[in-house]
Amino acid sequence: MTTMGYALSDSATMLRRNLRHMIRYPSVTVLLVGMPIVLLLLFVYVFGGTLGAGLGDPAGGRGAYIDYVAPGILLMTVASAAQGTAISVATDMTEGIIARFRTMAIARVSVLTGHVIGSMIQTLISLVLVVGVAVLIGFRPTAGLGEWVAATVVLAMFTFALTWLSVAFGLVSKSVETASNLPMVLILLPFLGSGFVPTDSMPAGLRWFAEYQPFSPVIETIRGLLLGGPVGSSAVLAVGWSAGIALFGYLWAKRLFNRRVN
């Protein structure tokens, strides 16, 4: 078997390990998907009537707001899953399993690859559940098959990027507690973007940050694809941010992992 073949085989083994952890401890998945669903219900049923009236939609109200906020909740789901990835990586690094792996003839890259792919599968399952709940309470996307595929690709790209970044967060942390706190900034960014209210309603300084931070173009792209609105340059920015974050996260994670293993 070639070196690439060994790496792929070992990565598949590590992926199975992470999937078994996900099945064995379903409470983690429930927690990761539970927070976005609770926020969705809170914003729609508690604040939706008032916030929906300020969107400028003639229909207004709660129905208009759930269509607006659902893409932001999807990005909140991705950010929440990133926190779980950081915790999982930090747990491996602090509980001695990596030292055990060092004594085995396995490809070093497979350890991180298993975490990344496993986390992406977990995140995509969570996204499906969140979309299902959103549809049940009134979310009505107008997208056709092509738009759904495009929106899925954009979400998968951004999930891949944040997953590598969260792997780096887990590696740089000296404890599981620290790893659980570092990704919190990712969970806050949808609130400081266009996820919950239009950026036009924000003060000038905050509005500038909200429009140029990485979550806003992804949210606007998903919103435009699913609800038939304009996408404009948001798609290009979403792809650019995803590629940049993924590259930075991968290089940072690789450097940290090699340094700690060595």
Please explain how this structure is put together.
Residues 27-260 form the ABC transmembrane type-2 domain. The chain crosses the membrane at residues 25-48, 68-90, 111-137, 149-172, 179-197, 235-253. Belongs to the ABC-2 integral membrane protein family. This is Transport permease protein. InterPro entries: ABC2_TM, ABC2_TM_bact-type, ABC_2_transport, Nod_factor_ABC_transporter. The radius of gyration is 19 Å and the shape is elongated. The chain is 79% helix and 0% strand. The two termini are 26 Å apart. The mean pLDDT is 84. The chain has eleven helices and no strands. Helix 5 crosses helix 6. It has 262 residues and is mainly α.
Globally, the shape reads: elongated
> How many E strands?
0
Strand percentage: under 5%
- Element string (H = helix, E = strand): HHHHHHHHHHH
Counting helices, strands and paired strands, the structural category is mainly alpha
Radius of gyration of CA atoms, rounded to a whole number:
19 Å
Helix content: over 70%
Tally of individual helices: 11
Mean pLDDT: 84
Main sheet: strands, sense, barrel: none
The end-to-end distance, rounded to whole angstroms, is 26 Å
